[in-house]
């Protein structure tokens, strides 16, 4: 009932010329940007980079809030109950928003969410410590072939981008390794640095924050990363693995079309600012340009890819 | 030396003002349960973008250390940890306050926090790179054993009542399993409810388990909440004298806190619990712990503030945040364009060292700031009439549990758990073991499954679990803690046999119920309920992945075993104990009314709106809690001040902390 009223009310609002005009002024007050994860992760850091540019682009500030829980599902399941005036936006991630509904009661469906712009991704990468005996990916694969099951990969979470990549890699390289899930990037990097596991499947961003302490053996991007010109891609080495975690901005479903487009434009504009590009790329993020107009195709392609991945993970039969 | 040179950089007027403002703000936020350092730091990060990096860091670090310290106020004065780090402060702090030593407890907490903070910051200043290696030496196995070590504290906390303590721990572990599992990814025990997906929030659970029973007891009789102190004030001199005498405890706890702070997976609550347990083990009269022994407050408070400096060590040296506030500060550094990692201390040494000096200065400022705020808070809590105190504390619990995620579900859970906790406590199941289980559950489970996976892959299972040097050390410490109460018990018996009569211990405010001599029917009833719960959990685990079901099945089995043991113990006792029916006297009626008001408050809040519901509930609780029957004029003043308090907090949350407030039909 309340929902219906809200829909009618929002409809009335957007029908008035006053509201139509407000798209041009948008935003006219500070915006709230909800991150569905804890502080300090890749989602937070990239949003903080955006925050530093936000005022210059929109004339208004953006406030970052954290609503962690259930790997993001806690926040995403509430996204559509938030006001659809455009002033509340939320970070959104792939493959999370595809895999979670497939895995079971996540409280939302992939198609319920309204992403307006996916602005970057962090490619998966294999890491070992700097003292590791494995200098190249071939060394690691040879060792894994000679010792089935012995190689352990630390990664962030179960049914996550890292987990998916580890399963994919097992399949493509025809090896048998063990994936050990940790509660986040921080703990899994700690395990790699401490030599608790043989190697790690993490995001390329960790290669920057750890400097020389870790060696990246391969990265799952299309082309080599500017920050790591010497690290080969999986593709170059003959494994067709491209991907990682995609991050974007979503809005509640009540948000009117012009505002959705406007928010997408804001994110795209920030993506083109030199300072932002410099910070993101040197931190190991790969910028993407998937605005609101390209969103449907992008999401459809990802759903197809991750549904296949979910079968490999054993989430769905 | 260079390092000293940076002290001068830290001493600019701007930095000093930032450090002072940060400590004041942090202490106040920390003292309010639910408003956390993480929240304060997150809101303030954007303001530091335009500041000089070192100045911004000093402000954030000062808020952080102030908040960890401020948590002690709520722990001592209302038995509710203001931050999870202060869990163990409640064990002795509140009993001290109840018997009239609240001021002394605050002084001790202040002195210990300052010393602990200094030890942590000095370690960060001079020992950061070598200590960062400790963080790396701690693998999943060590975290598993550390959690086990924490759980052994239950044996000490529930002397004479160990089985119930262990059952409580199992209940806490069960609560920790709810939600999406990190290892395995299963959705566990949410009963199909979306609100449980993210699991039981620790902070709102702590507020409910500790604080709601306090409010329920507060309204049940006309006695003052805390016994007024005979000498008044904070008794700072006496506190200094005690702290000097216990200097060994202060230093040991600070060192434990620093080292545990370095471990990214542990944090302030575990540091407090471990040093509490160590203080108890080495004490000459361990029986008095939990009944208001100053050593308990000293141990916890020096340890949890030491984790601040300790936590910055992996953050700054390895780029791995030790705690959530560290993670936000790490993000702020990255936005400033500072590269975290092994080279930070050389490339950006000026910023790092200026910041560390700033943190030290902020820690020292905690002494005057803390004593001022503490004196005010203490005298307010003692003087405020019950009819205003009870609703204010109730309002704070609801704000606190709501504010964590701007989520009404958390507030509802808090009230539900709180009422349950009061009932359980009445039958000898205390909240502390439940909280320990909840805090340590996920650490224990993740450590266990990860160790299992790694051990299984390499075929070295036994070696992984039992042969790693640090693990052996932790296991030994755990065994010592576990065995100690039994040994002390044996020694006491022996002493009695020798005809020496032990000195009676002052046990004002003790909450440990001795074992019953006769068969206790409600106890058997609870045990049967827990067995049914255990069976339900075991059966519920059958559909889960192998990784996700190990822990639930184990805990279910243990819960069933202990509950069966409790029944067996009762059956062995003579039957026919006086079966006390719940006595519906005036106190009980007030308790029930308060429970109803609290429940109505959290369930009507999303329908009617936060502000209006809170105002109505506030006045309702005033009526429930009133014993003085004052004239109408006083009532008018009370009600107006109540409405002002509600509006003030609502405004603070909506406009300063920028929380999304539930707005229903009204506001």
Automatic annotation (TrEMBL), chain A:
Family according to the record: Belongs to the UPF0065 (bug) family.
Annotated InterPro entries: BUG (IPR005064), Bug_dom1 (IPR042100)
Pfam families, per the entry: TctC
Native organism taxonomy: Bacteria, Pseudomonadati, Pseudomonadota, Alphaproteobacteria, Rhodobacterales
Disulfide bond is among the record's keywords: no
Protein's name according to its UniProt entry: C4-dicarboxylate ABC transporter substrate-binding protein
Organism of this sequence: Thioclava indica
Keywords (A to Z) from UniProt: Signal
Signal peptide: 1-19
Gene3D superfamilies in the record: Bordetella uptake gene, domain 1 (3.40.190.150), Periplasmic binding protein-like II (3.40.190.10)
SUPFAM superfamilies hit by this protein: Periplasmic binding protein-like II
Alphabetized PANTHER family for the sequence: BLR1237 PROTEIN, TRICARBOXYLATE-BINDING PROTEIN
Top-rank lineage group of the source organism: Bacteria
TrEMBL record, chain B:
The organism of origin for this protein: Thioclava indica
TM region positions: 16-45, 57-78, 104-131, 143-160, 166-184, 196-216, 255-276, 351-374, 386-405, 466-488, 524-544, 550-571, 592-623, 635-659
Keywords, alphabetical: Membrane, Transmembrane, Transmembrane helix
Chain ranges of the DUF112 domain: 16-436
InterPro entries referenced in this protein's UniProt entry, alphabetically: DUF112_TM, DUF1468
Residue stretches making up the DUF1468 domain: 526-662
Taxonomy of the source species: Bacteria, Pseudomonadati, Pseudomonadota, Alphaproteobacteria, Rhodobacterales
Superkingdom per UniProt: Bacteria
Name the record gives this protein: C4-dicarboxylate ABC transporter permease
Pfam families for the chain: TctA, TctB
